[in-house]
Amino acid sequence: MVGGILFTFYQGSNLDSNAKMWRLVADLMNDLGMLMDLISPLFPSAFVFIVCLGSISRSFTGVASGATRAALTQHFALQDNAADISAKEGSQETVATMVGMALGMLVARITIGHPLAIWFSFLSLTMFHMYANYRAVRCLALNSLNPERSSILLHHFTETGQVLSPKQVSSLEHVLPIQLTPWHSKKANSLDTKVRLGTRISSFDEMEIKEHLLSVASYYTKAKYLLVEKKGIVNVIVHKDSNGADILKSFIHALVLANNAYKSKSLHSDSQTWMENQYEVFIQKVKSLGWKTERLLSSPIIWRANWIHQSATEKND
């Protein structure tokens, strides 16, 4: 139980935006928990420790699988029939469990008294289960925009002027934690890792934020966000009145800024020009291919700021 609570505390806000990845991780952690239970009798001195690790692994599975199931059910509920989809998914899972129990009893009867055959059956079936889950998640083409999918779409659009479909993007996005992804694959579409959404304004010192506002405030007079580039990271300061569309726009703007970080000296000017000339074209093409552009699936934005735009012609008494 404690493991599930800790997992929710540290990763709960990421389950919506990375539903595919955490669905796969949940299955892998469940397999790992079963493996821990099976090997625990082989190490009597560490029996309790190994059993506890298996229990923690399964607690992660319970939280991640339940949360991602809800997110994926919404994707399949094309007619707002989430309850119907959930009921049918539960029925399919029950049938699969019954068939699995029957086959499991058959395999247990065949391999009884043969430890090597038992371990071979378990390991081979577990590997097949992991591969099947990986392929299933790979086939899932979500049409909601999260940071990584937005980065892939924008990168392709700036290179070719065309927008990828949800199915095409699904073959490019990561379905494993970034730490387990090969280095060359990380490098291919890592633009979203250079953007920090919802930065706390107090994380900058007073002089730093004043200098930034004096130099770039004119580029954000009509926007409900501010972009601050610092040490290769684009920080997005979100206005307290910004809505879902504003947050999506701020993130796309930050991606454009991050993409130009090593290409141009006038970052804010060039990125603002791109936003004025290309953003609406990009959004319309994205929407025409079935993408949902109402909001960006990201971690909840806790820190917001408030500021008032003042015309240069206005004077204070």
TrEMBL record:
Domain Protein root UVB sensitive/RUS: 1-160
GO CC entries: membrane
InterPro entries, per the entry: RUS_fam, UVB_sens_C, UVB_sens_RUS_dom
Keywords associated with the record: Membrane, Transmembrane, Transmembrane helix
Segments traversing the membrane: 38-56
Organism domain of life: Eukaryota
Limits of the Root UVB sensitive protein C-terminal domain: 192-307
Localization: Membrane
Keyword Transmembrane: yes
Pfam families: UVB_sens_C (PF24160), UVB_sens_prot (PF04884)
Family under the similarity heading: Belongs to the RUS1 family.
PANTHER family the record matches: RUS FAMILY MEMBER 1, RUS1 FAMILY PROTEIN C16ORF58
The protein, known as: Protein root UVB sensitive 3
